[in-house]
Design a protein that fits this description.
GO molecular function: zinc ion binding
Keywords: Metal-binding, Zinc, Zinc-finger
Order of helices and strands: HEEEEEEHEEEEEEEH
Organism: Brachypteracias leptosomus (short-legged ground-roller)
Shape: elongated
InterPro entries: FYVE-type_Zinc_Finger, ZFYVE21_C, ZFYVE21_C_sf, Znf_FYVE, Znf_FYVE-rel, Znf_FYVE_PHD, Znf_RING/FYVE/PHD
CATH superfamily of the largest domain: Zinc finger FYVE domain-containing protein 21, C-terminal
Pfam families: FYVE (PF01363), ZFYVE21_C (PF16696)
CATH topology of the largest domain: PH-domain like
Oligomer: single chain
Length: 232
């Protein structure tokens, strides 16, 4: 097993919330991941935290695996996949959290694969007037943005500070826009200075433009998840 494979190795763990497949080393965890929340202690929740129903021998307590709050079965009956916490199977969540997790499922089922497959862009570094044609993709462990051309860059996702998707075709009132590029700012390890990269979709082939637009849309969603995980 290589050093990278060893760092990315995973293990099966059991918590009160269910089975999780997590990285053996915390440093290898996905930047999109969320920590399991602490459960609200049973003694602190005599009533459902949603509908205020009093708990008794018939009305039992259930904890939402995403927020850790305490609910009755009626308010916490849905079992929904929660890949951001590495659960192997769908887990019980309250209605509000279930809705959020269901929206995230599309990212994990579709857009994450688009990011890993990559797309081709002209990449301009800093204030340079020269651009380089590069294939950009997300690494398999989701921790790096990898750029390959004549040059090679690996940008750690957690070092990215801002992402701005560039569009064209904007009309008053919105609509009819398409993603054509991206401005990215990130910190180089060991430096406090921000480095900027500009990504512009290649105009050579219509299939490249379509693939680039899909990749940029996926990157926009990934950025939203990244900022949300930093806030939680």
């Amino acid at each position: 097993m290589s050093g990278c494979e060893a760092r990315d190795a995973k293990k099966l763990v059991r918590s009160p919330s269910g089975l999780r497949m997590v990285p053996e080393h915390r440093s290898a965890r996905s930047p999109f991941g969320l920590d399991e929340p602490p459960w609200v202690p049973d003694k602190e929740c005599p009533r459902c935290m949603q509908c205020d129903t009093k708990f008794d021998f018939i009305t039992r307590k259930h904890h939402c695996r995403r927020c850790g709050k305490c609910f009755c079965d009626k308010c916490c009956s849905k079992k929904v996949p929660l890949p951001r916490m590495c659960f192997v199977d769908p887990v019980r969540q309250c209605a509000e959290c279930a809705l959020i997790s269901q929206k995230e499922t599309e990212f994990y089922d579709k857009q994450l694969k688009v990011l890993m497959n990559g797309a081709t862009f002209f990449v301009t570094l800093g204030t340079s007037d020269k651009s380089e044609l590069m294939v950009c993709r997300l690494s398999n462990n989701q921790r790096y943005l990898v750029l390959d051309g004549d040059s090679h860059y690996e940008i750690e996702i957690i070092q990215i500070s801002t992402v701005q998707i560039l569009t064209e075709g904007f009309t008053p009132g919105g609509g009819n826009t398409r993603a054509i590029g991206m401005l990215l700012q990130y910190k180089v390890p060991g430096s406090e200075e921000l480095t900027q990269m500009k990504f512009t979709a290649s105009e050579d082939f219509s299939c490249n433009k379509k693939l680039a637009a899909s990749w940029l849309a996926a990157m926009h969603k990934a950025t939203k998840l990244l900022y949300e995980s930093r806030d939680q």
